[in-house]
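YacC family pilotin-like protein, Candidatus Pantoea multigeneris. C-alpha cells?
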Amino acid sequence: MKKSIRLLMVLVGLLSFSSSSFALSESEAEDMADLTAVFVYLKNDCGYQELPDAQIRKALVFFAQQNRWDLSNYSSYNMKSLGEDSYKDLSGIAISNSQKCKALARDSLSLLAYVR
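C-alpha cells:
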C-alpha cells in the first residue's frame, strides 16, 4: 500500500511538473516585453501615436500563439517592469532615432497587419 501511494505521489509530481513546463518561460516573457517596448517606442518616439492599443494587444497575443506559448501564467511576471527595462534598453541603443524608427517599423509593423 505504501509503495502504491509513493508511486502515485511521484506520478502526480511528475505530471504537475510537466504541465507547468508548458507555461510561459522567463525568456518568453522577456520577448513579450521586448515586443511591447518596440510598439511603445514606435508610438512615443517615432510618430506612430495612431496605433490602436487594442490592435497592439492582439498582435502580442498573435505573436505568442504563433510561437505556441502558453500565456496562462502571464500575470505571474512583472511585465510592467520587464517592459520598462526593455524600453530603456531600446532607447539607449546608440544609433540615430530616425534609423532606429525605420528599422523597428520595418521589422514589427507588419505584425499588426495580421490582426486587423
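The radius of gyration is 19 Å.
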